[in-house]
Amino acid sequence: MPYGTLYLIPVPLSADAAAASYTPYLGRIINAIDEYIVENEKTARKFLKQAGLETPQSELLIHDYGKHARSNVDFASLFSGLLAGRDVGLMSEAGCPGVADPGADIVAEAHRNGIRVAPLVGPSSILLALMASGFNGQSFIFHGYLPIEKGERTKKIKSMEHAAHREKQTQLFIETPFRNNQLLTEILRVGSPQTRLCVACNLTAPDEQIISMPLQQWKKRQYDFHKKPAIFLIY
Fold it and tell me: How many C-beta neighbours within 10 Å does residue 139 have?
């Protein structure tokens, strides 16, 4: 019997972005499968409903791959359906599974088992921010979270700035939302006035903000990104 397919199902980046996040094809896929590996069952069920799920939720088989479950992963249980020939969906908390997301481990295990992996079209905050920044979209790197310790964080910012100027390479990174303003302050303090900074905040939400300009212009204005999901880019 052939194995099933692992479908990578993107989810909205914000609470009010369902209509802008789902394609008709995605709707057909979720109504053709009834088994999922998810990061959070409650939000996964909500996303499926928003995407047009017609299958009764009580008939779904949902495997927890949240933070606590990942400490002792039972791959045999997670992959039993796939190995038996059933298609399964993988969903993360926001955006695309496997991109800055622990679902990458599930995808890697699928490849080790010879299981077909099918990524579906959907929102990625990293790519949306890059698209809207006006920076180099041919050479870029995503660093994830910067160091928490102030000295190390400063060194990392300077290192990224040097790489941006030397390699003409866009540098992308994120911070815990409640530390966004502190990170912005540090970038403005240590960065060169000519270095360009883009902050893409609350992407796809009604209050989305995408601001891209040199640091010397940033210093003339006040912005508040406190507790708002944001992607930072320098170039």
Answer: 12
Residues 163 and 103 in one domain: no
**Number of C-alpha atoms within 13 angstroms, CB side, residue 184?**
27
> Looking at the structure, do residues 129 and 92 belong to the same domain, yes or no?
no
Split into its structural domains, the chain has a count of: 2
Give residue-wise pLDDT tens across range 34-90: 999 999 999 999 999 999 999 999 999 999 987 766 677 889 999 999 999 999 999
Q: Are 4 and 30 in contact (CB under 8 A)?
A: no
Interstrand relation of 196-201 and 230-234 (parallel, antiparallel or unpaired): antiparallel
- φ and ψ at residue 49, rounded to 5 degrees: -65, -45
85 shares a domain with 114: yes
pLDDT digits (tens, 9 = 90+) for 6-38: 999 999 998 889 888 999 999 999 999 999 999
Domain membership of residue 203 as a residue range: 125-234
Pull the structure tokens for residue 65: 């791959």
Q: Say what the pTM is.
A: 0.91
Euclidean distance between the first and final Cα of the chain, in Å? 51
Q: Are residues 9 and 114 in the same domain?
A: yes
Name every residue whose Cβ is closer than 8 Å to that of residue 86 and which is 6 or more positions away in sequence.
Answer: 4, 33, 35
What pLDDT is attached to residue 94?
A: 83
- Looking at residue 68, its pLDDT comes to 67
